[in-house]
Amino acid sequence: MTELSPSATKPLVTLGIRLKRVRERSGRSLREVARELGVSASFLSQMERGKSQPSVATLYSLSQLLNVSIDELFAEDDGDVPAVPAPKPAAPAAVVNRSQLGSLADAWPHAQQPPTLSVTRPGKRHVLEMDSGVIWERLVDNTGTGLDFIEIIYPPHSSSTNDQRMLQHSGFEFGWLIEGELEVTVGFEVLTLRAGEAIGFDSAVPHLLANRTDTAVRGIWCVRHGY
Questions:
Q1: What is the pTM of this model?
Q2: Which end of the chain is more exposed for a tag (fewer CB within 10 A), N or C?
């Protein structure tokens, strides 16, 4: 096994110390948190000891489970733990009611004349958090008004809408799942999308996306807006 250099392991150790501190402060045991998170106790222990790096989706699940913000996990506090650069995505600035939002085209501003080149970096992207807990992060800013290219995160037991109301809007959606299992309902069709699988569907057909599991879901979504 190749050993990491001290400079490479230090951020993980720092994060692990904070994760352990927050877990203990919540009064939960390591096994209890691991069970609710849907991971093994040994994996969670490795995270707390800085031996394993959690994914963004796992960090979101942990923050929700332990009732702590991502910022708090990476903020400088009493000085016993040095500050670490916060990972992407940036903390959402506001909570949005998905049922009232309509099309994704209305989620954020689109430049009428998008730049030829768009490079976005972790922590600097447009992020929206839905009232259902779902998070959208726009990956590039030059798709124009007809397209959106985003990362989606569905925390455990979250769905597109709080009341399970199906959505419909003009356009098409194409998605590729990176982590977890996502239940996708399109019209009368209900299917389970698993990591590595992709889907495309007409957004004008009533649809609902839901995470019915105890593990966070993460995927890449491309939405083509209709007019």
A1: 0.58
A2: N
* Alpha-carbon distance values, 123 to 67, 105, 108, 162, 205 (Å): 21, 22, 17, 27, 34
If phi > 0 it is left, if psi is from -120 to 50 it is alpha, else beta; for residue 187 that is left
Domain ranges of the chain: 6-74, 95-225
Backbone angles phi, psi at 67, to 5 degrees: 55, 50
Question: How many C-beta atoms lie closer than 10 Å to residue 29's C-beta?
Answer: 12
pLDDT digits (tens, 9 = 90+) for 62-107: 777 777 776 677 665 544 443 433 444 444 445 656 656 666 666 6
pLDDT in tens, 5-21: 444 444 556 777 888 88
Question: CA 8, CA 147: separation in Å to the nearest integer?
Answer: 38
> Sign of dihedral through CA atoms 78, 81, 84, 90?
negative
Selected from 1.10.260.40, 3.40.120.10, 3.30.530.20, 1.10.10.10, the CATH number assigned to the domain covering 6-74 reads: 1.10.260.40
